[in-house]
Amino acid sequence: MNGPMTADQLEKALREIGATRYHNLHPFHKMLHGGDCDKDQVRAWALNRFCYQTAIPRKDASLMGRCDNRQLRREWIHRVTDHDGDGDDPGGIERWLILTDGLGLDRDYVISEKGALPATRFAVEAYVRFVREKTLLEAVASSLTELFAPGIHRERISGMLENYDFISEDVMPYFTRRLSQAPRDADFALEYVKANAKTPEQQQGVMDALIFKTQVLWSQLDALHYAYVEPGLIPPGAFDPRDMS
Amino acid sequence: MNGPMTADQLEKALREIGATRYHNLHPFHKMLHGGDCDKDQVRAWALNRFCYQTAIPRKDASLMGRCDNRQLRREWIHRVTDHDGDGDDPGGIERWLILTDGLGLDRDYVISEKGALPATRFAVEAYVRFVREKTLLEAVASSLTELFAPGIHRERISGMLENYDFISEDVMPYFTRRLSQAPRDADFALEYVKANAKTPEQQQGVMDALIFKTQVLWSQLDALHYAYVEPGLIPPGAFDPRDMS
């Protein structure tokens, strides 16, 4: 391994990972925002994605729970409240349930996660464990997919509103809110990583953490695609649209 | 083991643990608030206690990090902000540093924890680990020493103001703030424990968790007493008042 990269070289390398590995490149994402999913496939996506949303505050609280740096905890805590809500704000998890409600999914069934694909749950728990067990620098770096999130949220909002008559603006508050939350989070994490990843080993760890996280997101779309598109083999016990009718 | 206790019997048993094991019964506490400590002993106490204060947000974030219950996380999160601060509120850790500043201790030295007794650090880390590794019910129960905290804080405020000319009201904001924070926290945790500890095994776990926590607090005063009072054997590397002069 050569000497360390400059901070700007590291940022460039991280953005390159996003450009080649973020799940906006996945065929299921293209189907979803391009209007090529049927309502049941959108339901399957929203139901599975709930598992991810609901785990985020545990992930972020776990990061804080191993963090000796009070300034970092003070900065990080709003990620928990963004999702759990605080006071009058019902939070992102509740906003996600507005989407699943709007899709006609039973709320208790969604919350139970019983219909989620096992691969979704495994990927989500791998993310929570990664954040608990890796270095703090790697844990922070694994959040950097948010650098690429505003683009995907904008695509989703416009694509889904345009293409699906069962999706209206009032079920999309999760995404409209995230458009302002994610950039703030991503900028902070990027600056932290650039300031703290100094050695080649640390920089490699940061890049690997971001690659890992893109895999967490990508594998969830793989599983959806496999179960609900091609070949369409739904695992035993997972959400089966045929049971709804 | 007989059948389960009623919720009220459990509360009585928990209060009995506090009445017999809380660290307000420790000789060092009696010295401290009775005016029998010299300034160096108060310094040693404040310096060591900082390790405990600064670990509390990690402890509470760790609890949230393993908690699937969003309502419980939403209730618990203010324990983190009470200590870390939030927005304009500098938080309890910062308020504790006002006390150590007022005692003439170097702030960087306090924050470094280099002068703390090893026994303090071990007790504090045992508490953080307990909350991470035991059941959620036991983790919540370990916070129940707060039931007994307002009494001790009131004793400390009045005792220390009366007895020490080097302690004035402006260095005591930590305690005055906790007078209102701790009862809210303790009431919530007590109701949670009463509602969720149903079997004899769970109830025993709750009582053991509270006993464990009283030991975490008590052992810190043991270590202070041993090092700075009787026999006054300061471990190598720990805060030594003779180095200050």
Concise account of the structure shown:
The structure is a homodimer of 245-residue chains. Chain A has 245 residues and is mostly helical.
Indicate the topology.
Two copies of one chain form a homodimer.
Chain A: H1 7-21, H2 27-34, H3 39-65, H4 70-84, H5 92-102, H6 107-112, H7 118-133, H8 136-141, H9 149-163, H10 173-196, H11 200-228
Helix content of chain A: over 70%
Task: List the domain count of chain A as a whole number.
Answer: 1
Instruction: Please name the fourth-level CATH homologous superfamily of chain A.
Output: Heme oxygenase-like
- The tally of beta strands of chain A, per DSSP, is 0
- Per the CATH scheme, the topology name of chain A is Heme Oxygenase, Chain A
Cα shape of chain A: globular
Which chains have the largest interface?
A-B, 25 and 25 residues
- Quaternary state of this entry equals homodimer
Structural class of chain A: mainly alpha
Low-confidence stretches of chain A: none
Description of the molecule:
2 copies of one chain form a homodimer. The first copy, chain A, is mostly helical and 245 residues long. The first copy, chain A, has a single domain, classed as Heme oxygenase-like (Heme Oxygenase, Chain A), CATH 1.20.910. The first copy, chain A, has helices spanning 7-21, 27-34, 39-65, 70-84, 92-102, 107-112, 118-133, 136-141, 149-163, 173-196, 200-228. In chain A, helix 3 packs antiparallel against helix 4. The mean pLDDT of chain A is 92. Chain A binds chain B through residues 54, 57-68, 70, 73-74, 77, 80-81, 84-86, 91, 93, 132, and chain B through 54, 57-68, 70, 73-74, 77, 80-81, 84-86, 91, 93, 132.
